[in-house]
Amino acid sequence: MVGLIHTILFNMVDQLAGHEKTRKIREAAGVASDAEFRIDENYDDAEFRNVLAAAREQLGLTQQQAEAAFAKAFYEDSKERWPTWFAISKSGRDFLKRQPSIHNGFATGVSDPEARPIIRDKFRLEERDDRLIVHYRSPNKLCGVYVELAKLVLAHYNETADIEHVSCQNNGDDACEIHVIWN
Ligand code: HEM
Q1: For ligand 1, what atom is nearest to the CA of residue 140?
Q2: For residue range 110-137, what is the model confidence (pLDDT) as tens digits?
Q3: Beta strands across the sheet bearing 176-181
Q4: Measured between alpha carbons, how far is residue 16 from residues 47, 60, 70 in Å?
Q5: How far is CA 46 from CA 13, 32, 42, 158, in A?
Q6: Phi–psi pair at 172, nearest 5 degrees
Q7: How is domain 83-181 classified at the architecture level of CATH?
C-alpha cells in the first residue's frame, strides 16, 4: 500500500483523537514510532491492514464507520493535495472513470518494480451507457472505502447515482463488482 494512505490515516487519527492515539495505534500494529511513510513508496499491504485494524479498535469504530471516516479524510486531503484531478474532471462519472488511471500513475511511480503490478491490478473498469462497473480485487478488501468515496465524489459534483455492490470479497467472492448507475 502506497504510503499516502498511511499518511492520511495517521493525520486523520491525530485530528480526531490526538497524537497519543496515533502512537498507540503504531504500537499495537507493530510499527516503529519513528517509521516514516513516503507518499510515493509502497509498503506491505498486510502491515497496512494491521494499522487499519488497530485504528478501528483504538477509535472504537465499526468497520463501516471506519471506512466512512477514512473516505471522508481521504476526500478532504485529495481536494487539497491533488486539485488538478478535480479541476480536469468535469463530472462525477468523469472522475470515477479516471480513478484507476490515477492509481496506475502511483504504481508507475514507486521505485520497487515488483510492487507496481500489485498496485496496478487492484482496479479494472468497464463502461456502459448508464453505468460504470468497477472490478476490484485486493487483499485489503476496502470496497467499503470505494463506495463511500464514490458517494463523496458524486456529491462533490452535485450528482446522484445508485451504487450496487453486486459481488463482494467480504462475502467470499473472488472480487468485488460495484456498479455506479446514473439514471
Ligand atoms: C485524487 C484522487 C485519488 C488519488 C490520488 C488516489 C490515490 C490512491 C493511492 C495512492 C492508493 C494506494 C494504492 C495502493 O497502494 O495499492 C489508493 C487506494 C485506494 N483508493 Fe484511491 N485515489 C484517488 C481517488 C480515489 C477514488 C475517487 C476512489 C473511489 C471512488 C478511490 C478508491 C481507493 C481504494 C478503495 C483504495 C484501496 C485499494 C487497496 O489497497 O485495496 N480512490 N488511492
Answers
A1: 41
A2: 989 999 999 999 999 999 999 999 999 9
A3: 123-127, 131-136, 176-181, 162-167
A4: 22, 12, 11
A5: 20, 15, 12, 36
A6: 95, 0
A7: Alpha-Beta Complex (3.90)
Would you say the C-alpha torsion 139, 145, 151, 154 has a positive or negative sign?
negative
Mean pLDDT of 38-50: 95
pLDDT digits (tens, 9 = 90+) for 4-15: 999 999 999 999
Could you give the 3-state DSSP secondary structure of residue 16? Answer: helix
pLDDT for the residue numbered 122: 96
Which residue ranges make up each domain of the chain? 3-61, 83-181
| Nearest alpha-carbon partner for 98 in 168, 170, 157 | 157
DSSP summary character for residue 110: S
> Which residue's CA lies nearest to atom 29 of ligand 1?
146
Assess whether the C-beta atom of 122 lies below 6 angstroms from ligand 1: yes
